[in-house]
Amino acid sequence: MKKYLYVLIGCFLLGACTAQRQYRVPLNETEVYQVIAALADDSMQGRAVFTEGIEQAADYISSAFQQAGLAESFLNTKGGGYRQTFDVIQVQPSTCEITIDGELIADKNAFVISDQAGVNWNANPEVEVITIPKGSDFKQVYREIVSKGKDVLAYVDESFAAEFASLRQYIQAGRIIPVDEEEERGSSVFVLKNNGSSSFRVNYSGTVSRQQLFNVVGMLKGKSRPDEYVIFSAHYDHLGVIEPVGKDSIANGADDDASGVTAVISLAKLFAKEHDNERSLIFAAFTAEESGGYGSQFFSKQLDPEKIVAMINMEMIGKDAKFGPNSVYLTGYEKSDLGKILQTNVEKTGFTFHPDPYPEQNLFYRSDNATLAALGVPAHTVSTVQIDKDKYYHTVHDELKTLDVKNIISSIRAVALGTRSIIAGKDTPSRIPQVQLNK
Q1: Are 403 and 318 in contact (CB under 8 A)?
Q2: Bigger pLDDT: 5 or 332?
Q3: Cα–Cα distance between 61 and 262 in angstroms, integer?
Q4: For 347-386, what is each residue's pLDDT tens digit?
């Protein structure tokens, strides 16, 4: 009788150990800290596109992918290592002088959106004059004006001063145009002024040049399903040097999105060490997310979307979610069953996946998952940021000291465990119905 009792106890203990191994995700907290500390360091100058800082960041991520044992992706530039390079047009405003009824408009109260090196209007009758009155949807009208591709002068009611200033800062930092979208388009001039006039003069000049951007991409080939892909991604660019607060002018982007890139690197190390993935895994650090998502847009055109099983994009995971520790949320949770699969795989582990609690923020369409999601791929973003309360978002205060590295580790573990059955080829998330990107 004792013999059988010992056998039962042994089986129970073996099962318990197996379960513990199943839920164990070996992560070195010191290594995770070192990665995010490097990416968010002042030496990278906020990782803005077309800067030395983003070059350093790309080199750092490439080195991390190599050390992890990732292969250079077939998607990458030939001879470019882990870099996936593509050409864009950079438009950098230089000078702008606008007079209305003979009165010179202050620089802070005007900006120009143009793909041309120069604009010279003198009460041109072909220019459409528009007024954006108080109480209107300023952002929506702005998008409509820019999308027209015609010459437009828009007078913006002064009640929109805060939104106007934020948009002007973004435009003055420079714009990016994909090479395949380069075409002759009109110019849009925005002036913060309550009362419009048809008597105006606009003299604007800018620099239009061809530049290169680059994603950083590595992969692990699948053992039995090499042509089916699971993507883990995050964007590594940020705002760079911005308006100073005190003596600090570097927007370090620790949470946005050094935290997500840290997760991608950590997952790459983890899965490369295990090397038991049946499907191929692609690890991507995207550029130019803050400039319009151009890195992920280019990446998305290089793969047949029907071969992409899932995309787990990670953005801002450095603080506790609204649901407390060991929890994350998934944007667009209801659009596929990816979230349900992730949650099933983490049952009894203490981790939880939740639907996005901020649907009014439109986060599903604002991150690098959006382009592939529009093509039907179950592509979602994992996040923890309390976006309605985060006072450090897009400021110089988004630094490592404001983050909880343990929360980053918890989120990485949740994604690692949640995707196990997908990586193993046991689960295939449902496709997303055709989605129209919210532009």
Answers
A1: yes
A2: 332
A3: 9
A4: 999 999 999 999 999 999 989 999 999 999 999 999 999 9
What value, to the nearest 5°, has the Cα angle with vertex 92 and ends 89 and 95?
A: 145
Whole-model pTM: value is: 0.87
Considering only the C-alpha atoms of the chain, give the largest distance between any 2 of them, rounded to a whole number of Å. 104
C-alpha angle 340-261-361 in degrees, rounded to nearest 5: 55
Side-chain-side CA neighbours of 338 within 13 Å: the count stands at 28
Task: Give me 266's structure tokens.
Answer: 């950590």
For residues 335 and 253, what is the distance between their CA atoms, to the nearest angstrom? 29
How far is CA 218 from each of CA 261, 265, 420, rounded to the nearest angstrom?
A: 13, 10, 19
**Taking phi first (over 0 means left), then psi (-120 to 50 degrees means alpha), and beta for anything else, what does residue 55 get?**
alpha
8 Å CB contact between 262 and 32: yes
What does the DSSP 8-state code read for residue 324?
Answer: B
How is residue 90 written in tokens? Answer: 């950079």
Q: Cα separations (Å) of 343 from 247, 277, 285, 350, 419? A: 44, 20, 25, 11, 9
Asked if residues 192 and 110 have their Cβ atoms less than 8 Å apart, the reply is: yes
Angle subtended at Cα 422 by Cα 227 and Cα 221, rounded to the nearest 5 degrees: 35
- Report how far residue 301's alpha carbon sits from residue 308's, in angstroms, rounded to the nearest whole number: 12
pLDDT for position 396: 95
Cis link prior to 320 (omega < 30° from 0)? no
pLDDT digits (tens, 9 = 90+) for 202-236: 999 999 999 999 999 999 999 999 999 999 999 99
Beta-carbon-side half-sphere exposure of residue 426 (alpha carbons within 13 Å):
10
Long-range contacts of 54-57 (CB under 8 A, 24+ apart): 54/236, 54/237, 54/287, 57/236, 57/237
